[in-house]
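= Protein in question =
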Amino acid sequence: MEQIKTSFDFEKPLAELVQQIDKVKQIADKTKVDMSATLTELEEKIIETQNNLYSNLTGWQKVQMSRHPERPQTLDYISMICDDFIEMHGDRTVRDDKAIIGGFAIIGGQSVMIIGHQKGKNTKERQFRNFGMANPEGYRKALRLMRLAEKFNKPVISFIDTMGAYPGLEAEERGQGEAIARNLLEMSILKVPILCFVIGEGASGGALGIGIGDKVYMLEHTWYSVISPESCSSILWRSWDYKERAADCLKLTSDDMFKNRLIDGIIKEPLGGAHQNPEAMAETVKAQILKDLQELKKEKTQTMISNRIDKFCAMGVVVE
């Protein structure tokens, strides 16, 4: 049985079962007694516990899952699903924003432009990537690459995983709001197919800046909202102590988003989350990309753009 990675309080029942299995194996090694029946029973109990646990996660628990330190990020998906990737840098105005990466890639023989947030895996890398929080030049770099993709008639794939756009004073001075708004406008009328995948956190305008697409998907244990539960809690209750309640009120899970018709689908993760089996997760994402690109190729450009605009214009409209 594969090693199960546990990190959160709600995974304690799993951690206890894993410890029991380790103890049984140690006893079997020391005493040379056949403990296979006990091991089989414990492994079956682990699978049952996993099924019960991960199919009934609360909003806050899904937020925790989306932040797992070993969860695959944009560069991980690129390395697993792309046959080739050429990273491109800079917005041709200020500098190269390391929080957003992008470049031409080949997926299953199909040439595409990939753009995505990159948070980093350790402290040094997270500082280098600004924790995946992009400055205006990051969004302008993304737009430059999308226009390049349009010029060469290549589809755009975006991977969303950010706590939000960088809220610093210098970012606002360089036009953070305008950069995101410009991307929303330009992506809505881009003449090539756009597929968006929320692979971790999808917070506010930082996510929306590369989140307008013909198809928008969320991985099963991710979240997408106008604000994080902690920030919502601090505004409404003047404390972070109510973040779990805020997560439930925000309706930010993939199930909630799909139910409210704000996304086009949910991509199921391996049992226990994407970090338990990144390769299987990448294969699922790759299959979805190739399937959708095949379908979108058949549409006329103007029809595709009209459908994209209509989809987003219909959001938030209430008909009584």
